[in-house]
Design brief:
Layout (H helix, E strand, L loop, with lengths): L10 E5 L2 H4 L12 H6 L17 H15 L3 E5 L2 H4 L9 H16 L3 E7 L5 H5 L6 H18 L5 E6 L1 H10 L10 H25 L3 E6 L4 E3 L5 H24 L4 H8 L11 H5 L5 E5 L4 E5 L17 E3 L16 H13 L5 E5 L18 H19 L4 E7 L18 E4 L4 E4 L1 H12 L3
Parallel strand pairs: 1-2, 1-11, 2-3, 3-4, 4-5, 5-7, 6-8, 7-10, 10-11
Antiparallel strand pairs: 8-9, 12-13
Bound molecules: ligand GBH.
Ligand GBH binds next to loops.
Length: about 450
């Protein structure tokens, strides 16, 4: 394989999320989140796993930061747990919750690692859910207050802020098909959640800017939507529909201003959009400094005018759209491995929504452990191949002119993989959940090399 160099100043790092790694669910005044409730509800998460202990990162953060430094990470993306900061989601701030992120930030800076904060990675305070969660406008207002509280504590040391992680998942999986917390199944609620999440982002950007924040953005999980048959008009229509409900419903209000007409019409079939107020458009479209992109796999669809489509997590696609079963090499999640999808996606975003720098805030793969012997380093050549392929794809996008600033691997550690619990492992570092022992896999050593050479 040819050697590839990345641009000078290209940022290399790793990402995690609070509920997936921290544990310490009842420590230091943390309130319950919708993921505590959901994971403790029988049948929702594989084998009844919860984030109660997870990787115990809350207590082991110093060792974990030392490991990041050993691997040469330049940046580390973590999320802040809202219910640690405001146990009830609104009202008094819990200083002990902020203390943890204060210690973490200082530990990172002490090792020369750039902290990238995500303010919301799915752990909504349960009290807010009891009042409607993301279907309530109040939640968006509360989010801005929470963002200000975190900024007030960390803003002097954290330079890069992102508001939400993957609002698509929060809305469609949380309120549409209910496979994620809070487990609601209601198309109207899903669309109302989309809007209130976007509004929360916009209000938080306003609040962060007012407080003096430097770099502010949001992380999406845009889909590379592909037709089963490139020559089929029905498939092209299916691509357009899914692209609207997955991508343009977020991109357009954030980066252009307002929802696309076809998306508005589709949503109106499920819910009267009284929750959209005139003033919201401007708030949501507040300029951002970076767009975080999470990419894992492409989405192949076929149009089914005969009404025989299986649909998916997208309200109103039942009957009309068939989501094709993944084919070819798959990860342990059953997701396709298609690096070219990343190049296509980055190019498409750069073309349709120019002027905003991009950062890959997540990319990675789950693969089962290869060895039962805990004394030999785990040889995860499948993960190395996945990462190598996707870095080549990212490099190709840069070569075609995409303004891509960096790459954060998902994930630093094996962790609580949401509805899959601990059975799916995304880490470049292995976690033995019985002993909490961390062991870098061969992918971690490979990544360390990539970073030190700034290339492949
Ligand atoms: C991210 O979600 C999350 O930010 C992170 O917390 C999580 O651990 C990580 O990825 C790994 O899952 O569902 O078969 O139709 C990614 C969620 C994955 C949702 C791909 C859409 C489409 C394939 N996305 N999925 S499928």
């Amino acid at each position: 394989m040819t050697e590839l160099r990345f641009p000078d100043n290209f940022l290399w790092g790793a990402a995690t999320a609070a509920y997936q790694i921290e544990g310490a669910a009842r420590d230091d005044g943390r309130g319950p989140s919708i993921w505590d409730t959901f994971s403790r509800t029988p049948g929702k998460v594989h084998a009844g796993h919860t984030g109660d202990v997870a990787c115990d990162h809350y207590h082991r953060y110093a060792d974990d930061v030392a490991l990041m430094a050993e691997l040469g990470l330049q940046a580390y993306r973590f999320s802040v747990s809202w219910p640690r900061i405001q146990p009830d989601g609104s009202g008094p701030v819990n200083p002990r919750g902020l203390d943890f992120y204060d210690r973490l930030t200082d530990a990172l800076l002490g090792r020369g690692i750039d902290p990238i904060v995500t303010l919301y990675h799915w752990d909504l305070p349960q009290t807010l859910q009891d009042r409607g969660g993301w279907t309530s406008r109040d939640t968006a207002e509360h989010f801005a207050t929470y963002a200000s509280a975190v900024y007030a504590r960390l803003g002097d040391r954290v330079g890069t802020w992102t508001t939400l992680n993957e609002p698509w998942c929060s809305a469609y999986l949380g309120y549409g098909n209910g496979v994620h917390a809070p487990g609601v199944q209601d198309p109207g609620a899903a669309f109302s959640a989309v809007h209130h999440l976007l509004l929360a982002h916009g209000l938080a950007v306003q609040a962060l800017r007012a407080a003096g924040a430097g770099r502010v953005g949001v992380t999406l999980n845009p889909a590379d939507v592909r037709p089963a048959d490139p020559n089929s008009a029905a498939d092209a229509a299916a691509v357009r529909l899914v692209d609207g409900l997955h991508n343009r419903i977020f991109f357009d209000p954030l980066l252009v201003g307002g929802y696309p007409d076809d998306v508005r019409e589709h949503v109106a079939r499920f819910v009267e959009p009284t929750f959209v107020r005139d003033e919201d458009e401007k708030i949501i479209a507040a300029p951002i400094d970076l767009l975080g992109i999470n990419y894992y796999a492409p989405t192949y669809v076929a149009g089914r005018p005969d009404g025989a489509g299986g649909g998916g997590a997208y309200p109103g696609t039942e009957g009309q759209v068939q989501f094709l079963a993944p084919v070819g090499p798959l990860t342990d999640m059953g997701w396709m491995i298609e690096p070219a999808g990343l190049t296509r996606l980055l190019e498409r975003i750069a073309t349709d929504y120019p002027a905003v720098p991009l950062l890959i805030t997540e990319n990675g793969a789950a693969f089962p452990d290869k060895t039962a012997d805990p004394t030999t380093p785990l040889q995860d050549s499948d993960r190395v191949a996945y990462l190598d392929g996707h870095l080549r794809a990212a490099h190709e996008a840069i070569a075609r002119g995409v303004d891509l600033r960096g790459y954060l691997v998902w994930s630093l550690l094996d962790n609580f993989e949401w509805a899959e619990g601990y059975r799916k492992r995304f880490g470049i570092v292995h976690v033995d959940y019985l002993t909490q022992r961390r062991t870098p896999k061969s992918s971690a050593r490979w990544y360390q090399e990539v970073i030190s050479r700034n290339g492949l």
